[in-house]
Design brief:
- The protein is mainly α and 245 residues long.
- Helices cover 83% and strands 0% of the residues.
- The protein contains nine helices and no strands.
- Helix 2 packs antiparallel against helix 3, helix 3 runs antiparallel to helix 4 and helix 8 packs antiparallel against helix 9.
- 33% of the residues are buried.
Length: 245
Amino acid sequence: MLLFANALSAKRLPVALPAATTLQRSSKQSRLIIAIVTTLLFAPFALANANDNVEETVKALQKRWAEVNYQLRDKAQKQAFEALINQAEQATVDYPQAAETWIWSGIIKSSYAGAKGGLGALSLAKASRKDLDRAMDLNPNALSGSAYTSLGTLYFKVPGWPLGFGDRERAEELLKKALTLNPDGIDSNYFYAEFLRDQGKYEEAERYLLKAEQAPPRPQRPLADAGRRKEISVALHQVREKLNN
């Protein structure tokens, strides 16, 4: 009987193992299905939260840029721009797939280049172009085509070869594209007018400056709008002086 019992136990053992393995596999599959379903359920909320974070980050950069660009001068402005560049670069690290953060990193660097001036500004202009090119790769239409406006402005402000990468034809192409994306925008019209004024096309420049002057306000950017409208007023005065001479 003992031998029979041992033989019976030996026969039962192989039968029990596959059953346990099947249960384990079933449990793993269940956990995997639960994980997938949970991910699908909560992914939209995570994405919405990430988008909200990008939006808030960009708003903070826009606000600080307006303060630095329009309210500060000389050494205080340069120091503030340097700090703001660090903040913008951190934003591109935090949100590397957001074209908006790259656009503002490029805008801030190009603004600092303009404030700094001279050959020392060229490295900033090149860094700005790199950021804006990255934004274009990610989403060229982000922020109503702001990358086109900023990059086009760089191409006509920066000296051409051999000193820099300036290119009038490329500048015009980019600025016109910005206008197709944002035909009534204050910046798209103002910077195209600046390009035309630089070319000596004063009648056309006046027309686009007037359109920029009539652009609808941006409720979340009152300081930037006020500063830009002052620049438009000065530019209009200078253009009309040229037309009257």
